[in-house]
Amino acid sequence: MTETVTVRVQRYRPEEDTAPWEQSFEVPYSEDLSILDALNQIKDQQDPTLSHRWSCRMAICGSCGVMVNNEPKLSCKTFLRDYREQAAVTVRALDNFPIERDLVSDISGFIDHLETVQPWLIRSEEQPVSAGAYPQTPEQMQRYAAFSQCINCGLCYAACPQFGRDPAFLGPGALALAQRYNLDSRDEGAAQRMQWLNAGEGVWSCTFVGYCSEVCPKDVDPAAAINRGKVASDINYAVNLLNILRGKDDA
Amino acid sequence: MDVRQADIVIVGGGGAGLRAAIAAAEANPQLDILLLSKVYPMRSHTVAAEGGCAGVIQPHDSLDAHFDDTVSGGDWLCDQDVVDYFVRHATEENLRLEHWGCPWSRKPDGSINVRAFGGMKIERTWFAADKSGFHILHTLFQTSLKYPSIRRCDEYFCTDLLLEGGACAGIQAIDMRTGSHTLIAASAVILATGGAARVYRYNTNGGIVTGDGMALAYRQGVPLRDMEFVQYHPTGLPGSGILITEAARGEGGVLTNRDGYRYLQDYGLGPETPLGEPKNKHMELGPRDRLSQAFWHEAQAGRALATSRGEAVNLDLRHLGEARINERLPFIRDLARTYVNVDAVHEPIPVRPTAHYTMGGIQTDRYTATALSGLFAAGECASVGLHGANRLGSNSLAELSVFGRVAGEQAAARASQGPSVDPQRLLARAQDNAAVWEALRESTGNERLATIRDEMARAMEDGAGIFRLPGQMRQTCTKVAELKDRYSDLGLVDRSRAFNTEWLNAIELGYLLDVAEAMAHAALARQESRGSHQRPEDFPQRDDAQFLKHSLVYRAADAPRLDWQDVVITRSQPAERHYGAAGQQENKS
Amino acid sequence: MRRSHEPVAWSLFGAGGMLLAFIGPGLVLTTALLPWLAADDPQATHAAIGALLAHPLGKLLVLACVALPLFHTLHRIYHGLHDLHLPAPRLPLQLLCYGGATLLSAVTGWWLLQV
Amino acid sequence: MHKPYIQRQRADWWLRNPAYRRYMLREATALPLFLYTLLLMSGLFQFTRGEAAFLQWLEMLRSPWLLALHGLALAAALFHAVTWIALVPKILVIDTDRLRVSPAAVKLAHQVGAVVCNAGLLLLAVLLLRAAAGN
């Protein structure tokens, strides 16, 4: 008899169900088995109607985010061995996103937010490629390095109660990406991106719960990015106020 | 059926597809460009490339040296005009990525840093720590958002190319959210769907790497070229096959067998280099085909380690020290810790060769045009003639930019000449196609999807692996034919439409079987040993007289039809490939 | 997207938070012990506090110790009520919390001027 | 057909995860600290009304209710100080070409500063009141 583990999987089939429900499976245990392996085992051997996203199985493509026992996790980087003490492992679709089906979340809101913050290098004057690389020392790179590690998996959005309350909040991933460019010594677009940080849907929806940074599988620390953004937005607010008092236009 | 129109449709949102989209948008901002992918672009498998991206930049390096390394690395099966174009544009493309924000690792003075890579005589591999592909892909994706003319269809699964008057006039796809069919007419179609190493059981590839574009083209009579050449990456994690970058060796990591012996010196790659002093084109920095083959011999001789995850050798990084590992190889450290419970700072990482890259693909000319007018292909799904019989590490990321851009510009030129075909003229055919896919969704046959997939993967490992033995190769051809037959008796369980991944996996399996068929038959037809295609029993030698040719596989009713195409040779005549001391000797002479 | 005026509230919240971290526990302990510390000679304590409040800097210090914690705590209470799904529209709640903090601070300032 | 299931946040979301409970506890420190501030205000008010009123207020501080409030406020202030300073290095980043201070050093500086300030305040109050009483 091989040892098995009970995996309870959330199901939601939009064509049949009005609300999600839970289905139990017994999966043969092994030391190396990830939650993703377990889901694939279920799909291949037990119930082919289970739908979940996955691809790289090495925690870099960002496809396979799910809630494992109520915590946002990459299923490929989470192992059954870490849940052996518990009676069962429960796998659900990511919190705070609409559920397309089973474990597949609708992350389009998050992607829209990413696109909003102008996440590309902005230069006042574009240098021709023939002029060579823009210089950047390792120290300068270090200033934005962590914020450039985001794999867009959406775990931070599932962890963020403010995004859960109001999906218009640009959220941890998008704001960290804005800061990734703002802090890049080659970029000159911080002033343009300021409008997104300044908004109520920008950094000011954040109450520094900090759970986004705890669940981030790539140590991006989006909470730090947002709260440094608050300082920047704060200064921007004061400068703008001074300009208005001096009779200049609202920037 | 949802009916749409665009000027250019790009299938695949990885490095090549995104670069093509940007190039097309820059070439003609008036064009309506549709980037369609079965995953969000940043999920594409470019993301998993680790080591780096080639481009000559050091003063003592030269385009000729990069050319020579690539051509000899490819065992002279590269089209040399293509290689010339490639080496001339790789650096420019890397710089453009830099200008778009790609965080290439730097020297202390702020200039671009480069590292050593296998088969490269001089360090010319640009890198972003050990997440080069990740940074390239995200840079391209984010940059693509700048262009309003690039629209995206995320999570649309391409099922067919649509032809009109002998030219490619559009595609059709399934909207994965709803399961509905969409027809998109376009003046030009670019396939950028990546590789197909998922035909193998142990591979470094993501689950999405299922040869879709290759099969789509193949089904329309476009030949697949050099499909017998499949690269085994010498260092994947045992069990999962997860990639451990060549940069681990470029930075100085060494491979040892069960006895702690650096066995590569026994396979024409020596003499042994001192620890911590990696030498270009020696030992661990030999080309991938040679290293994977050496592992096979070691395992045959019983000198591999037996691990709970299967046979392996040790990749030892310990002498690099924690600081350098954290700076240059942080992802490798994380992967080893997560997936084999090894901290590379204190223990060697067990590794073994796993299927990694398809050198071959959809035949294109040097301008990325396929045999089908209106259809272009770039990236791993294409065979532009760059890699020959064995790709050098870090050439493929550069290929994405160099030829992705060419494809975008070529497609833009074509699309600028005139509007696409009226989609209504494609509708009847698209509806017929849709009916076939609907029948598959409702299929009630006796065969199970996972069974066929696993049997295929095992058969390919047996008959089209690192070493190819005549009996097994023939068996694999027969097996794939049998599996294709059984595939038509597939039974699916899921009848729904919304995100029906069983249905989509079944379509992917059809693609995989087509690609497997092309690989197995091309391998059988190439009666020589060259690069990654090794037949030690029946044809152990390279045979330039007969096989200095590209293989072409055409789809046919029973078994595929084989043909051959001359290799373009401009200035480098085929010679023997030498690495290690022998290579150095040759350089001096 | 429109510019938020949250920076005003956040600056005051932040200043209050920093102040509370640096002197909050000390201040609470001081007033907790005050009746006992002053037990020997309560009048002298009154006089000492009077001296502090007589000085403009002393007034400013006391104002900071009251106003900033008010803005800090009411900011947190406002967001906390929102987090708890208090079924109230934002504006009246904002008026109550930030208006309250402003009003109480003004009263404190007025009292200080009386001393 | 496209019919995603919309997950709505429940009012008790913060009970369901230890990280959220810690957050709510941190935010809840504001309650006793707010009440404590009101107490300070009442002391000031009594002071404006004259010595007798102030001395009465001083006596009132001995009541068990107000001692309990002090206890609660002290716990809140300590928890606030610890959690606040833990987050400072994420907001206050000193990393320019001329000056770099590591996050750990920023945190340590704040911790040391807070201990010194709090202890100093208490010590100062005790000494001043002693000196005043001695005169």
Could you give a quick summary of the protein structure above?
The complex is a heterotetramer of chains A (251), B (589), C (115) and D (135). Chain C is an all-alpha fold and 115 residues long.
Question: What this model shows, in words?
Answer:
- The complex is a heterotetramer of chains A (251), B (589), C (115) and D (135).
- Chain A has 251 residues and is of the alpha+beta class.
- Chain A has two domains: 4-105, Roll (Ubiquitin-like (UB roll)); 108-245, Orthogonal Bundle (Fumarate Reductase Iron-sulfur Protein, Chain B, domain 2).
- Chain A has helices at 35-46, 108-116, 138-145, 155-159, 161-165, 171-182, 190-198, 211-215, 222-245; strands at residues 4-11, 21-28, 65-68, 71-74, 89-92, 99-101, 104-105.
- A five-stranded mixed β-sheet of chain A has the order 2-1-5-3-4. In chain A, strands 6-7 form a two-stranded antiparallel ribbon.
- In chain A, strand 3 and strand 4 (71-74) form a beta hairpin.
- In chain A, helix 2 (108-116) runs parallel beside helix 6 (171-182).
- The N and C termini of chain A lie far apart (71 Å).
- Chain B is built from 16 helices and 22 strands.
- Chain B has helices at residues 15-27, 63-73, 80-99, 132-144, 212-218, 247-250, 288-300, 321-328, 330-340, 395-417, 424-441, 449-463, 470-487, 501-525, 544-547, 580-588; strands at 2-5, 8-11, 33-37, 53-54, 114-115, 125-126, 150-154, 156-164, 167-175, 180-185, 188-191, 224-225, 230-236, 254-256, 305-307, 310-316, 349-358, 361-363, 375-377, 382-383, 549-554, 561-566.
- In chain B, a hairpin with a 2-residue loop joins strand 8 and strand 9.
- The radius of gyration of chain B is 23 Å and the shape is globular.
- The mean pLDDT of chain B is 96.
- Chain C has 115 residues and is mostly helical.
- In chain C, 85% of the residues lie in helices and 0% in strands.
- Chain C contains four helices and no strands.
- The model of chain C has no long low-confidence stretch (mean pLDDT 95).
- By secondary structure, chain D is an all-alpha fold.
- The relative contact order of chain D is 0.07.
- The model of chain D has no long low-confidence stretch (mean pLDDT 95).
- Chains A and B meet through helix 1, helix 2 and helix 3 of A and helix 3, helix 4 and helix 9 of B.
